[in-house]
Design brief:
The structure is a homodimer of 647-residue chains. The termini of chain A are far apart. Chain A contains 17 helices and 24 strands. Chain A is 34% helix and 19% strand. Chain A is globular, with a radius of gyration of 25 Å. The relative contact order of chain A is 0.10. Chain A folds into four domains: 1-39 and 254-426, no CATH class; 43-211, no CATH class; 428-528, Immunoglobulin-like (Sandwich), CATH 2.60.40; 534-646, no CATH class. Chain A has a seven-stranded antiparallel beta sheet with strand order 2-6-7-8-14-10-11, with no helix packed on it. In chain A, strands 1-4-5-9-13-12 form a six-stranded mixed beta sheet. Strand 15 (533-538) of chain A pairs antiparallel with strand 21 (612-614) of chain B, so a sheet runs across the interface.
Chain lengths: 647, 647
């Protein structure tokens, strides 16, 4: 990696002490992590590593279980780095030992393919998540090493990675396959960065390069299993029959994939791995491919909440501007994946567009994934809910109008746990020449600018307020560029350096104010980000949002809930001229800014049991009360609506 | 049946010569009937009756195939009565012979349970449509006898009905089961009416009375199969776990079923059978139950098109006012079933509410089920379509934005064929005292009022125009009440008898003008039904229609199509004040009244690839062009929208 390139300031060098995230991070640590361990234990995911399951016994291991435990370990590792916890550490150590004990003599490590279907090892890369599980274990291993200084799992996973490198490749006797669920690509880059071993980078490159080539590996593999590859063309999860491997992001070689498509989480993980590889190798074509895919996501296929993947069927992207609200899937994991992708793009190119999307996803579609108390989770994150509207969808624990305690396919809960446990890592970047502030969060960070230590401290009530005071505290006076993000949602930012106004027209570039000078302890910045309530409209081709506005204040998208507004939210219309007020309510949902405004609501009387009548109902004034989208569903269950009708 | 009760004038005593239905009926006769025969033949449905299918051969008979052929026979029989056709008659005779040859020595008659799973006869009434298939064959048999004078199938089906009556009942050794898909109940009443044999009426009554009782037959039956009845509680097609038999309309005894629920077609067939039984037996409680269920349908669970059953999942009713448009299921068969139910309620009680709903379904949600040329069919009838929006739903041939040539589950095509072939039968009713006109259709009818022959002739351009001239031609001067429907959609009807105004305030009752006098040849009536374009709104609790209006003119609900309006229909808003004009366009869709009006449409420019921006787009004038909903999808594929945003 070029020494000039940005890298994130690790989360354990960042302190989060605000009113928005800090309580969530505490709940994640104190409630979610123990709870997820118990769920993993209760469901057999932990004990599965003992490799003593036998047919006929309960808790038959599933082929994606390894990844759930891996993500929990990663989350725990991140947490241990910021909040040492002997009890948690002991749990992690035990699980790691169990995992290590499950490693086979050849280095192979996977529960399902060791105890349930050992004869099927590497025979169904398309569907069975084998390399995906390996990837998550690698990420966990790197996190344990980098965040908690524990090498045990890293060594195990290097052995496994070496084994995988022996099995996969273009050499004689090697398999030219890759995983139907991308993940190992980005994980191998992490493993490379943690160990410096080039072979892991090469293997990641191999998996990315092989993807989608003809003759298609998944065809060959299916034939080797005695299956007709045509079969999958008839159950292609929403893909055209001539693109059966689109859900797997393997319909085309990656550089010919120009549109965000297929399974949204797989897409985000693949694009993140591609961005990592582009950064490591300097491959301009790969970087351009990433930018193309990025544009496809953010200009056509992303909810205003940062959710991606609108279709439940196949958990996938559909087509441009197809963003239904009530039927939005917008999996929590996919929004998390978008954060991963955005963060990588941002390190490669300091452009506020990436940070804006990262912030949009974090504050809305990711934060909505877990309850305030850390106990319940959304898998799907719709933008409109009318209980019991879910009768229209096959009943599934994934798609529910209330957060659930756990899921059969439990990818989201540990994913959000690891995201929150490492949240601070998204706020700053560093390079020998630059210090960047991407997110405004009360707290501080200890940066290392090519050896020079610089501490940044933020005093702010963001996202409830837009004033940010930043204290710059280098160990010694140091020349570097401090890049402060000017959020895209802010129309009129203002900046002062040591009390003197800064001409943003001169220093602002691509969404950041670039301040180059020799910084000394005591330098301070005051950033003002006025955050009036804004009405947002969607592109006219987003049919679901026609005639509607979303309310946004700062980075937060708002919604109406039945709690506070009564049922029948869709019968509320907000006049274009209506004033909107924002007020912090400390008793509401742990403290939040509420948006109120004078709307109108149809008079529901006089129907006498009729279902249809000649139009002409009257409307009456109604005061709406909107809360941040990420907080919905923390009160009594009921309706929810993001896009409000405009009149 | 009481001699005073109304009964429909049989379709073969009615002539249809209008511009709306007559071409459809001709297409049904000339195109649809031969085409459906070929489909039945191509797919093996005809040859299956040879009982020579063997495992490993193609076209494995499905347990609902018998019903598809039966409905085709019924349709052909209806057609032969009005339009003799030697070729069609020969086809029907051949199929009937095949069916007769398949009857088992004991009278049993079902392809699937004879050649595929003979050991499973009567073991899974819940799922396997065994009695349902019998019912459709009975209906076909009655139609062949009454419409075409052919007794062969009637005799076969009487033998089968006798066998069923021997198997089912409360006697020792008899089964107390009933079908998971109601149909045989109404069919047995038809068989009773055709033969006068009381045992068929009794058997229908038995099936209705046993339904939903505890201990539950479907539980016992499942246990007898060695299954755990709890299983179905976990896959209950959208029903609560404690109502696993709601999809089968067997969750409660019928008199305790107060809400329209479960599978919509099954519901309509059950309610129709209940209404038949109430009429035949004079059972007031059963009649009251029918009225309750009717109210549940029409006051809470019916689309403005007369479609019912809003959820694809389970093809079912959901809850009150849950009527999504894009995701509407509204199966063609269910709208047809609603016509059956409405017609029966109307005979029992001459109330315009029943006729209004019957007309609404016929002109909208039923007529939409088949293309103008009679070649293609809708199974689901959504009220809004954005191709390719169907990526959000598991791909199925049922749910498509274009009419299909056939379906794996091919219930709808022959159902609409039999409805159209007998369409005239819905227009008039007769009793010794009354002649009723329910539908205004150019043509005539030959009534039999307790022996007195009366011919009615209609001269009208309905539904394109609202003037109707009716000539009354009794064979001899006859005293009777002529009841003319005053459609609920019409605000200001006017009536003249022999040129003199009739005071409707005096003669109108429950949606009909009752004219009692001695009628003589030469008497004539002029009915004026002004049909301005009306804006319709839905109850505020219909969340999908909030802020929207549907356009209706006469009985026809209108829609916007992409053809004629361009894409992005949801971005059109119709001001409350906009004038709406109606004009017949003879070149459009076989000739139709088009509705135009001045709306506004968002200016789609200036987005520069963005997906969201601060609200404030301008709108520009746009002239909408709406066509009858039933005609949509007959031009190039594209968007469609019934409920138009109002501004």
């Amino acid at each position: 990696m070029s020494a000039m390139k940005l890298s994130p300031v690790p989360h354990h060098r960042v302190q989060v002490a605000d009113r928005f995230w800090a309580p969530r991070l505490a709940a994640n640590r104190k409630v979610t992590l123990p709870l997820e361990y118990r769920q993993c234990q209760r469901t057999g995911r932990i004990d599965a590593w003992r490799l003593d399951w036998q047919e006929g016994r309960p808790n038959k291991p599933h082929y994606f279980w390894d990844s759930d435990v891996a993500k929990w370990i990663e989350a725990a590792a991140f947490s241990l780095a910021t909040h040492p916890d002997k009890k948690l550490e002991a749990l992690v150590d035990d699980v790691v030992e169990l995992i290590a004990s499950a490693q086979q003599p050849d280095g192979y490590l996977n529960v399902y393919f060791t105890v349930v279907a050992p004869e099927e090892r590497w025979t169904n890369l398309r569907d069975r998540h084998e390399l995906y599980c390996a990837g998550h274990l690698m990420e966990a291993a790197v996190a344990l090493w980098q965040s908690a200084g524990k090498r045990r799992l890293l060594e195990v996973m290097c052995r496994y990675a070496d084994h995988i490198g022996w099995v996969f490749g273009r050499g004689p006797g090697q398999r030219r396959g890759y995983c139907g669920h991308p993940e190992i690509e980005l994980a191998l880059v992490k493993l490379y960065r943690a160990t410096g071993r080039q072979q892991y980078l090469k293997l990641a490159r191999h998996f990315v390069d092989e993807r989608g080539r003809q003759p298609h590996y998944f065809d060959r593999e299916a034939r080797a299993r005695g299956e007709d590859p045509e079969q999958i063309r008839r159950r292609s999860l929403g893909s055209p029959a001539d693109r059966p491997y689109e859900p797997h992001l393997a319909h085309l070689p990656v550089l010919r994939q120009h549109e965000a498509t297929g399974h949204a989480v797989r897409a985000m993980y693949l694009y993140s791995g591609m961005a990592d590889l582009a950064a490591e190798t300097g491959d301009a074509a790969l970087a351009a491919g990433c930018r193309r895919l990025w544009k496809s996501v953010v200009t056509g296929r992303m909810y205003v909440t940062g959710g991606v993947g609108s279709a439940e069927h196949g958990e996938r992207f559909t087509f441009d501007r197809d963003l239904p609200n009530e039927f939005a899937y917008a999996e929590t994991c996919a929004a998390i994946g978008l954060v991963f992708f955005a963060q990588r793009m941002l390190q490669a190119e300091l452009d506020g567009e990436y940070a804006d999307v990262m912030e949009r996803a974090l504050y809305n579609g990711v934060a909505s994934g877990v309850s305030l108390d850390g106990r319940r989770f959304f898998y799907a994150n719709p933008l409109a809910v009318w209980p019991p509207a879910y009768v229209h969808r096959p009943q599934s624990d994934h798609v529910q109008a209330r957060r659930q305690e756990w899921f059969g396919c439990a990818c989201c809960p540990p994913n959000i746990a690891r995201l929150l446990a490492s949240f601070g890592g998204y706020a700053y970047s560093q390079s020998p020449e630059r210090a960047c502030v991407h997110l405004y969060v009360r707290g501080g960070a200890d940066l290392d600018l090519g050896g020079a230590k610089v501490r940044l401290e933020q005093e702010t009530d963001y996202p409830w307020g837009g004033n940010v005071r930043i204290a710059v505290r280098p160990e010694a006076p140091t020349a570097f560029t401090l890049a402060l993000r000017l959020p895209g949602w802010c129309r009129a930012p203002g900046l002062r350096l040591n009390g003197r106004p800064v001409d943003l027209g001169r220093v602002a570039r691509k969404g950041y104010a670039h301040l180059r000078r020799t910084w000394s302890a005591g330098d301070s910045l005051e950033l003002r980000l006025p955050m009036p309530v804004e009405r947002v409209e969607a592109h006219p081709a987003v049919r679901a949002d026609c005639g509607r506005v979303a309310l946004q204040r700062g980075p937060l998208v708002y919604c109406l809930e039945e709690a506070g507004n009564g049922p029948g939210l869709n019968d509320i219309a907000l006049p274009r001229s209506a004033g909107l007020a924002a007020r912090f309510d400390r008793r509401l949902l742990g403290g939040a800014v509420v948006v109120t405004g004078q709307a109108r609501r149809r008079d529901p009387s006089g129907w006498g049991g009729r279902l249809y009548r000649r139009a002409g109902s009257r409307t009456r004034p109604f005061r709406i009360r909107a809360v941040p989208y990420c907080l919905w569903g923390n009160r009594r269950p009921g309706e929810m609506l993001v896009w409000i009708r405009e009149s």
